[in-house]
Design goal:
Elements lengths: L20 E6 L6 H12 L2 E4 H14 L7 H13 L3 H4 L7 H10 L3 H16 L7 E6 L2 H5 L5 E6 L2 H14 L6 H17 L12 E4 L5 H15 L16
Parallel strand pairs: 1-3, 1-4, 2-3, 4-5
The structure holds 2'-deoxycytidine-5'-monophosphate.
2'-deoxycytidine-5'-monophosphate binds next to helix 2, helix 5 and helix 9.
Length: 249
């Protein structure tokens, strides 16, 4: 679906009436959406929030305290610890990226109470940007559908599961981490299934999202394509200067 087919949303909660540009980047595991969102934010001079890191932080802390990542009762203390300590250092910690934490993150993210607590944090982040920042890029699974349903632009980044597994496998190899391609493919398929079938905020493209299939695109081509889409909607031909946008109200 093209962004030219933007649907006006009937209802905008009070807290979303703001001037800053919000760009939602959703997609399955290892689709490249995180790298894309990071680069897009850098190119535009916007803030970036990796919402997956929030779920990973809860998962890592849950594993550290020996909690079952599927049980809210057991995960709750970890959630409380993380909510009191959501620092940039924690959210960029390399330990958040281990296969164990990835698996546990997929489990904690299916718990409605965890989602509700982290939803508020994400909305607060988007609503409280410093005055000098023109917008924010948030990446995740439900940004365009639940967290920021009125985002100015929504991208849904995807690629075939085999291609995503190939990329993740090469990444693990370059980090000298042990894994077979078959293992990585099975892990990704299991996470896809959990992410798309959970009851609360399942992974699904927003109806007004621009779908970007990166199976045959490299990261630079993917970034260029998104910047072209953003330019065509907001930016002047002469530079990365956002024009005022008439919000749907
Ligand atoms: O994007 P990621 O792989 O870092 O996300 C880790 C897990 O968190 C993933 O299994 C799905 C979940 N997640 C989510 O449910 N909603 C988000 N907005 C972001 C991530």
């Amino acid at each position: 679906m093209s962004i030219l087919n933007f649907r006006k949303t009937d209802f905008i909660p009070e807290e979303f009436s703001r001037q800053k540009i919000v760009i939602a980047v959703d997609g399955p595991a290892a689709s490249g959406k995180g790298t894309l969102a990071q680069k897009m934010a850098k190119r535009l001079g916007y803030a970036h929030l990796d919402s997956g890191a929030l779920y990973r932080a809860v998962a890592m802390t849950a594993l550290e305290i020996g909690a079952d990542p599927s049980s809210f009762q057991e995960v709750q203390p970890a959630l409380n610890i993380v909510l009191r300590n959501l620092t940039p250092e924690l959210l960029s910690c390399p330990d958040l990226r281990t296969p164990e934490v990835s698996d546990a993150a997929s489990k904690v993210s299916a718990i409605p109470e965890v989602r509700a607590a982290l939803l508020q944090h994400q909305r607060d982040f988007a609503a409280n940007l410093p005055a000098y920042v023109g917008g924010v890029v948030i990446d995740g699974r439900d940004i365009g559908t639940v967290v920021c349903p009125n985002a100015d632009i929504k991208f849904f980044v995807t690629a075939s599961v085999e291609e995503r597994a190939r990329r993740r496998f090469l990444e693990l190899q370059s980090e000298h981490k042990e894994a077979t391609f078959e293992q990585v493919l099975a892990d990704l398929s299991a996470r896809d299934l959990r992410d798309t079938t959970r009851k609360v905020a399942p992974l699904v493209a927003a109806t007004d999202a621009y779908i970007l299939d990166t199976t045959k695109l490299n990261p630079a081509e993917t970034l260029d394509e998104t910047i072209a889409v953003i330019r065509s909607k907001f930016l002047s031909e002469s530079g990365d200067v956002a024009k005022p946008v008439q919000k749907a109200v």
